[in-house]
Amino acid sequence: MNLGFSLPVFGKAAATPxxxxxxxxxxxxxxxxxxxxxxxxxxxxxxxxxxxxxDTMPEEFHTAQDPFTALAVxxxxxxxxxxxxxxxxxxxxxPANFARLLTSIDVASNGRLxxxxxxxxxxxxxxxxxVPMSERGKRLDDLLDLLETWWTKDTVSHEGVGYTIPExxxxxxxxxxxxxxxxxxxxxxLQRIARRADGWLxxxxxxxxxxxxxxxxTLGQLRAGAEKAGRDPQALGxxxxxxxxxxxxxxQIAESVTKIVGILExxxxxxxxxxxxxxxxxxxxxxxxLLELTAKG
Length: 297
Known about the structure:
Strand content: 15-25%
CATH topology: TIM Barrel
Structural class: alpha/beta
Distance between the termini: 9 Å
Number of strands: 13
Number of domains: 1
CATH class: Alpha Beta
Helix content: 40-55%
Low-confidence stretches: none
Radius of gyration: 19 Å
Number of helices: 9
CATH architecture: Alpha-Beta Barrel
Order of helices and strands: EHEHEEHEEHHEEEHEEHEHEH
Mean pLDDT: 96
């Protein structure tokens, strides 16, 4: 199993000086196939919309690293691990800056970037960056258009949503065109994934919160939609995030991961350790334990 893990970008572990570099290097050496970041700009004291399953925001999000910085640091200290995001709230960033950031990280990592993008759900975060939340969908479509141009043309010009890029030389190109994966379960999101994305970002929970056929059925719908759009349905990738509840034992996580990987057959799988550890050492210990257990399974 090609198993990956979240970098320590949230919670107490994220505040450890040099912690991301130390973890990334050691995790790859231990056998981690991929390393991942999430994206949380704010942890409001009284959020307009609470985090799903919470009355407010999880304490882990009180401390949050910048996802691009974390990916760049990991790129500098690793050689083989895929570097992914699940999920960056892409429409909260200026598109031109966003395109340059992704390109630079892909070059720094020698073509190992897997950008997983979403549109977020927090009105507080959208207010903080001055972007109308109601424009999320059209801004994501616009960003996907820009990334295609930025990565494939030597001169770039673009009339975007609220911004204009004059014809400009953009000679820095990714090592290979990064496979953009998109998150979502809603109807519009799934249609966009089928038409435009290189892959999908589903989520599995431990303990299980829904049956596995929710994921397999949705994936089947996505691939049917991709074929209808004239695309190769089997080329649509899957990068699965496994969220484990606080206090979940490593053995239970490994058993559930082995089960869902056997059913869904994702291209990439990673365990989000955010709610399970409070230090880089704990992050590393659990990484080693899960690699050992899944290798046996």
